[in-house]
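USER:
I would value a second opinion on how I read folds in token form. Give me a protein, with the fold worked out from its sequence. Write it directly below this note and I will take it from there.

ASSISTANT:
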Amino acid sequence: MESTLTRLIYREFLLEPDLYREAGLEQLPAKIAQAIEVSPSEALSRLTASPLLEPLDLETLQHLVAVRDMAIISRTAAALSHDLKEPAVTYDQCCRQALIYAVAGMNAHVYAALRAAASKEDSYARHHYLYSLLLGLEGDYDRALWELEMALEREPYAEARVRLRFAAEVIEKAQKAAG
């Protein structure tokens, strides 16, 4: 189940318009395309069409979106949190930053960005969904499902609600498997 939740985080990263460029990963579509032997546009299409990101395996995806390939300025989560709480920084920018740190595996930074997003607009769904994926990865299934419920209550778009329900199914299966 962990790999499916990780794939969902990567999927959200790739669905966010031009986030791979913002993260310093301009070559990501070409690298993915080379890995699965299709054109860059077909690679991105395949990755965003399926919740499971098939046919690219998780190890390949993690390699392509490795921290060493990203233009991330290393700083403490507290400093990041302070910067993101500036009035000029928007809710969407906080969530985008959280996704960049999530694919880099920098969870303390992810949580700092999501807390900043929540402080800006807690009535939106996106940060609740991202929280749920991270909590699910950490095995905190009850809190993950609660965050997903919060996201579902707030999400106005049908396509996004499908992704939320899929994540809920994955987390519920993981919870049952954990006993």
Summary: Residues 67-73 have pLDDT under 50 and may be disordered. The domain at 77-178 is CATH 1.25.40.10 (Serine Threonine Protein Phosphatase 5, Tetratricopeptide repeat).
